[in-house]
Amino acid sequence: MTAGPAEDTRTRLLQTALRLFTEHGVEGTSLQMIADALGVTKAAVYYHFKTKAEITEAVAEPGVRDLDELVLRAAAQKRRGTQVDLLLEGFVDLVIRHRALVALFSSDPGLVRAIEKSAHGGMEGFGQALLGILSGPDPTPAARVNAMVTLTGIAMAGGSPDLARLGDEELRTELLDVGRRLLGRPRRRGLASVTP
Amino acid sequence: MTAGPAEDTRTRLLQTALRLFTEHGVEGTSLQMIADALGVTKAAVYYHFKTKAEITEAVAEPGVRDLDELVLRAAAQKRRGTQVDLLLEGFVDLVIRHRALVALFSSDPGLVRAIEKSAHGGMEGFGQALLGILSGPDPTPAARVNAMVTLTGIAMAGGSPDLARLGDEELRTELLDVGRRLLGRPRRRGLASVTP
DNA sequence: GTCTATACCTCGATAGAC
DNA sequence: GTCTATCGAGGTATAGAC
């Protein structure tokens, strides 16, 4: 609401930043590049965002918000099986929905580091919450490793350039399948052999 | 051999660099920091390494060498099952052996980016080779996603600060277990329930 | 409220003295 | 083998034009 010209420049700036970040990495993208791409000066960029970290945070914000929601929704479930199922499906959906952003996150700690120092005390809380739900209360080392591999594997695969040519639907199906297998949840599709 | 004083300074420099990289990330570590930690000037550092990228490469070199050997050894096997088993076990071993380095790799594209531009044409070849062996010839999308999740999941979990307190032996066992389950290879230990 | 001009400091990197 | 001096670029910061 109140989408004035200020908001417009801000939005264009964020779109441009995401594109440049994807191409050159966060730390490989200078404020000068962003300014040039927008046709303004560095100081103009500095007017909208006080620091470069603020830009990276704003770029990541949609993904972070969805993740926040997901954790809250999952934690609200009563049965642990439901929590795990909801978290897995929600996480895969999120990874698909924000593929470009996830690719950045997975390959660029410039983003992560920038986020860590703001938000609700950083990104770490989310990871902790996700892992906590997936690995259950009082988890064994096996459960912790399992949850970790599941989450990081899904995120990395989702953001991987190697799999970029897979369509959203197909990638979503496969990631869900792998996740279910790792977490010991029943699958809903035919048991396609995975090592042909 | 010929461990002259030059080698000594070089070695100290690399140890210091790895420590600082781990603490502040590659791009978060300036040559000034390294020089200060060694008690010399920036230019002195430049005597031993022509660029900062050369330092990151030298820091990563032991891990890259092991990975190179592993790929060659796996590719030399005749039966595909043997290839997969050898690659999985070797990869887990490598991740354990170079935990600190893997943590850096997993969380810092500064390293990856630095390596990409040197070595035998970059890091990408390795990933491609690993994925190729794990996903088999003419792989389905399911097999590709599966291999991707396996490799990235193991690497990320191995380098994760969250699991840093797990001992090498235990982490090794669990990572192998997860990998075997994902790749459909027989396990050698009791089927501990993973979701307690 | 939005942007330009300009300056400051640190960084990676080079040249050359000792 | 190590140092001083210096450079261009990057992030940050302020003053002031419109």
From TrEMBL, chains A, B:
Signal peptide residue numbers: none
**What keywords appear on the UniProt entry?**
DNA-binding, Transcription, Transcription regulation
The residues that make up the annotated DNA-binding region are: 30-49
- The lineage's top-level taxon is Bacteria
Q: Name one Pfam family in it.
A: TetR_N
Boundaries of every HTH tetR-type domain copy = 7-67
* Transcription in keyword set: yes
A single GO molecular function term of this UniProt record: transcription cis-regulatory region binding
Q: Does the keyword Transcription regulation apply?
A: yes
Q: What is this protein called?
A: Transcriptional regulator, TetR family
Q: What's the source species for this entry? A: Amycolatopsis pretoriensis
